[in-house]
Amino acid sequence: MDAILQVENLTKQYAGFRLDHVSFSVPKGTIMGLIGENGAGKSTTISAILDLIHKDDGKVTFWGKELSSSKQLKEDIGVVFDGINFYETLTPAKVGKISSAAYKQWDECLYQNYLKRFQLPADKKIKTLSKGMKMKLCIAAALSHKPKMLILDEATSGLDPVMRDDILDVFLEFVQAEDHSILMSSHITTDLEKVADYITFIHQGKLLFCKTKDELRYHYGIIRCKAATFNQIDKTEVLAYRKDDYQWNVLVADKEKARRNYKNAIVDDATIDDILLLYVKGEKLK
Fold first, then answer.
1. d(CA 60, CA 10)
2. Which domain holds residue 270?
3. In the chain, fewer beta carbons within 10 Å around the N or the C end?
C-alpha cells in the first residue's frame, strides 16, 4: 500500500533523552496509533515530523515530499495537539474567520456543521469553554480545511467517554476516503483498539514494533503460570515477563502455540494496554 507519511531513521538528541532512529510509515486509508509511556518520545516524534523541532538525523516525507518543499502540503495536513491552538479571547466564529484567511481550502459550511455536531457555541469566548469543548473546537478547525492527513497528539484526552466515542466515529468517517490517513498518539489504548489499523510502539526513544492491530489482538497472549511452568517455557518465545505475588505473567507473540504447549497454564488474550504495561514494567530475558 502507498504511504502518505514515511518516517525514516528519525533521531533527536536532548540532554538525558534520545529519539533513536525511529522508522515507520502510514499507508493510505489507515489509522496509525502511536503508543508509549509518558516520556517515551511520542510528542518528540510528532514535533519532528511536523518540522517544529530540528531533526538530528533522518528523513520525513508526505506523499514523497518533505514538508518544507510545498505550501500545499500544509493545507493537506490537519494537526491537533493536546491543548488549545488559539487565543482564548477568540470565539469559535472568529476562529472560522481567521482560518478562512489562512487556508485556501477552508470550508466555512463544513466548519459550521462541525460546530453544530459538536454542540459548540459560536459566540462564546474560548476561555469560557471546558477542556473537552476546546478540544472539539480544535478538531473541527483541523477538519474544516479539508486535509488528507490528520496528525493527532492526545486529541481525545480531554473528552468524556461518550464524546470520545463520537469523535472516534468522525475519525473513522475521515479515513473512509481511501486517500486519507491519521497518525494518532494516545494513552487511551481502548480508543486505538476501536479505530486503529496499525500500532507503532515507542519505548525510551526506540521503536519496539510497528504491527497491525489485528496481529496484536489475535496473536499476542499472556501466559499466567507458576514458577515451575515458567521455567519450562521456551525463552526464545518470551517478549517480556513480570512476576506478581503468586504468578508469572509472560507476554508471547503466539498465544495458540502457548495454549498447545503449556496446558497447565492459563493463556489470556492480550489487550494493547497489557502489551504496553508488560513491555514497560516487565523484564526482558537476556
1. 8
2. 220-281
3. C
Closest CA to 66 of 51, 44, 81, 45: 51
Q: Do 151 and 90 lie in a common domain?
A: yes
Q: With cut-offs at 50, 70 and 90, classify the pLDDT of residue 1.
A: low
* Residue 284: how many other CB atoms lie within 10 Å: 9
Quick check: is 286 in a domain? no
Residue 85 resides in a domain: yes
Residue 133 shares a structural domain with residue 18 = yes
Q: Quick one: pLDDT at residue 254?
A: 95
Confidence of residue 132 (pLDDT cuts 50, 70, 90): confident
Work out the mean pLDDT of the chain and round it to a whole number.
92
CA-based nearest residue to 32, from 275, 195, 143, 217: 195
Cα→Cα distances 220→159, 202, 223, 253, Å: 30, 18, 10, 4
Segment among 23-27, 43-47, 155-159, 225-229 with least mean pLDDT: 155-159
237 within some domain:
yes
Residue 42 CA to residue 185 CA, distance in Å, equals: 7
Q: Helix, strand, or coil here: 230?
A: helix
Q: How many residues does the chain have?
A: 286
Which stretches of the chain are assigned E, i.e. beta strand? 3-14, 17-27, 31-35, 57-62, 77-80, 149-153, 181-185, 198-203, 206-212, 221-225, 238-243, 248-252, 266-269
pTM confidence score = 0.91
> Are 125 and 250 found together in one domain?
no
Cα-Cα-Cα-Cα dihedral sign, residues 190, 191, 192, 197: positive
Residues 34 and 168 in one domain: yes
Q: How far apart are CA 7 and CA 22, in angstroms?
A: 7
- For residue 286, pLDDT over 80 is answered with no
